[in-house]
Design goal:
five-stranded antiparallel beta sheet, 9 helices, 5 strands, 49% helix
Amino acid sequence: MADDAAEPSLFATMSTMRAMRRLRPDPVPDELLDQLIQAAVWGPSGGNMQRYEYVVVTDRTVMAELAPLWKRCVDAYLATTGKYAPEGMDEAAYGRMVAAIEYQRDHFADTPALIIPCYQFPPPRIEEEGLRIYAEALGAEATERMGRIQERFSALAEGSCVYPGVQNLLLAARGLGLAANITIWHLFLETEWKAALGIPEGMNTFAVIPVGWPRGNFGPVRRRPVSEVVHRDRW
């Protein structure tokens, strides 16, 4: 039987795991970064293929090279999707969040560590007989539909192998007292990011996660109540 005493600690960790964007420049020891990657590796991986790779950046020179890319991505986000507060979030709260995003942008070169999770499926091994059974199982309409959304399906399949590990990493960071937040803004300039970091062209990147010691306190997250988001048995 699981230790009941562990449950409140886990839930308390999750309930105070806010995106912490203001970081101190103090370095994070390699052994702690290794713990974060270990936590990520423990995450579920579809088919247990374990095709993930993690780029960890701590070198100040490399971080300075990435800072202009980060600024371009953040500016693009704030001018479009991030221009307006999400529905249900008041303008004052959103203003504070934007201020934190701008602080992180302006101090990006001082980020102690970046973690970039990557993943690439192996080439598919599908035989003609398998395709026949696939089409019979789905039916003609669904098979045609899958053909149209195959690119999206593949991206989601890879993401489903990556993001459980990323969540483990974020939980581990919170448990160690480290600030971390997940972003995908780098995808605006993914080609440039991959070139700067020497990531192979065929390897897909799924996030850029700044990590460091927080310039503030962890606190309760603000989320919609469960009663508003649950649809039991059907929508």
